[in-house]
Amino acid sequence: MTDMALAQKMRAGAEKKKNVDHSQKTFWERNKLSGGYLLKKRIMDVGVSIVRFILLFGMCFMILQPILNKISVSFMTEQDLYNPIVIAIPEHFTTANYRLAAELMNYSQALVNSLIVALTIALLQITVCTLVGYGFARFDFPLKKIWFACVILVILIPPQTIASSLHLHFRFFDILGLIKLTTGSTLNLRGSAIPYYLMSAGCMGLKNGLYIFIIRQFFRGLPIDLEEAAYVDGCGMLKTFVRIMLPQAKPPITSCFLFAFVWQWTDGFYSRLFLGNTKLVSTSLSRIIDSLGAYIQRINGVKTTISVAYSNCILATGTLMIIMPLIILYLFAQRAFVESIASTGIKM
Predict the structure, then answer these.
(1) Does residue 266 form part of some domain?
(2) Interacting residues of 183 by C-beta distance below 8 A, sequence separation 6+
(3) For residue 173, what are the β-bridge partners?
(4) Distance from the Cα of residue 257 to its chain's centroid
């Protein structure tokens, strides 16, 4: 062994021994050698962890505390509502509030109708918004920027501003004057689900502009080489979209479908405007206080003033009955939802 190799071996052994000796020193010895830096860093890390915990706990408490209060109130009798001793845990536990709320909202029928409407509307909206979003991301056509500006306006302009126009359009529905020319009068589509399905098919339903924007941003982030390779292999545009691009878009489609289902489930504006004759959980909840007054008057035979506390109790119970299916849906879909949000955020 040469002198240079021997010197390198001895130097490496000394460095290794020095590192071992340094690792065996106590925290305070290492802190003394660092001039107090280790202690300051440890205090800073602990302080940041405490502040982070307080902020997260506060945010979670602000979100969960109203729900926990509603759960507690929903199991209380009217006597417990006015008892100052009862705060969070009911003294007289009861499930009568749930039975009464279910009767007032016609819950079983409203639940089935809401499930059918929300599911079909969500599927229709995601189908057409995926096609439109892919078209905006991959194809050039006349007035493309103007049409996309219209999509942004659909996101920004609240639907209440065009409520009167929608009412008149579907109250006197006509297609280029052909219906009136043939039958002598226009069609009245109010009170049926047809107008809402037509709007959803035309990407003018609830939050459709947002879905188009999310899906368009995702497709823009995908490399165009995927489609070019498919075209070289003989695939057409539709086959390339269905077999190559659509499987890649599962994350944003999953996110948009869950958003569409949840927002449609709790929607009150479009449901009252177009689906007024259909019993839904969202519209039933808005009328639960009036239904409670009519129910008590029918039971007692005379008009009775309902206490504010008891009205709020029944309203809280009905709210829990509406959001419970959404919580169950989230429990089953949370993994796919979180993954879709993370993947969409990365690719956007």
Answers:
(1) yes
(2) none
(3) 187
(4) 9
Give the SS3 label for residue 296. Answer: helix
- Residue 245 inside a domain? The answer is yes
Specify the 3-state DSSP secondary structure of 267.
coil
Helix (H, G, I), strand (E, B) or coil at 317: helix
Q: Is residue 146 part of a domain?
A: yes
Cα gap 321→74, rounded to integer Å: 10
Alpha carbon dihedral 122, 127, 129, 135, in 10-degree steps, equals 170
Tell me, yes or no, whether 284 lies in a domain: yes
Number of H helices, E strands in the chain: 19, 0
- Report the C-alpha gap between 2 and 230 in whole angstroms: 63
Q: Which two tokens stand for residue 242?
A: 């269905």
Contact assessment for residue 136 and residue 209, using Cβ atoms and an 8 Å cutoff: no
Residue the block writes with tokens 């749930």: 98
Q: Which of these, 198, 197, 203, 236, lies nearest to 136 by C-alpha position?
A: 203
Name the residue with tokens 């979180």. Answer: 338
Written as tens digits, the pLDDT of the chain (348 aa) is 555 555 565 566 555 555 544 455 676 777 777 777 888 888 888 899 999 999 988 888 888 888 888 888 889 888 888 888 888 888 888 888 899 889 888 888 999 999 999 999 999 999 999 999 999 988 888 888 899 998 888 888 888 888 888 888 888 888 877 888 888 888 888 777 888 888 888 888 888 889 999 899 888 888 888 888 888 888 888 888 888 888 888 888 888 888 899 998 988 888 888 876 778 888 888 888 888 888 787 877 767 777 888 888 888 899 899 988 888 888 887 776 666 666 555 444
* Structural domains counted in the chain: 1
The CATH number assigned to the domain holding 166 equals 1.10.3720.10
The answer for residues whose C-beta is within 8 angstroms of residue 216's C-beta and 6 or more apart is 132, 133, 134, 136, 137, 148
DSSP secondary structure of 41-68? HHHHHHHHHHHHHHHHHHHHHHHHHHHH
Helix/strand/coil for 197: helix
Phi, psi values for residue 126, rounded to 5°: -65, -35
Our measurement of the distance from residue 290's CA atom to the centroid of its chain's CA atoms, rounded to an integer in Å, reads 29
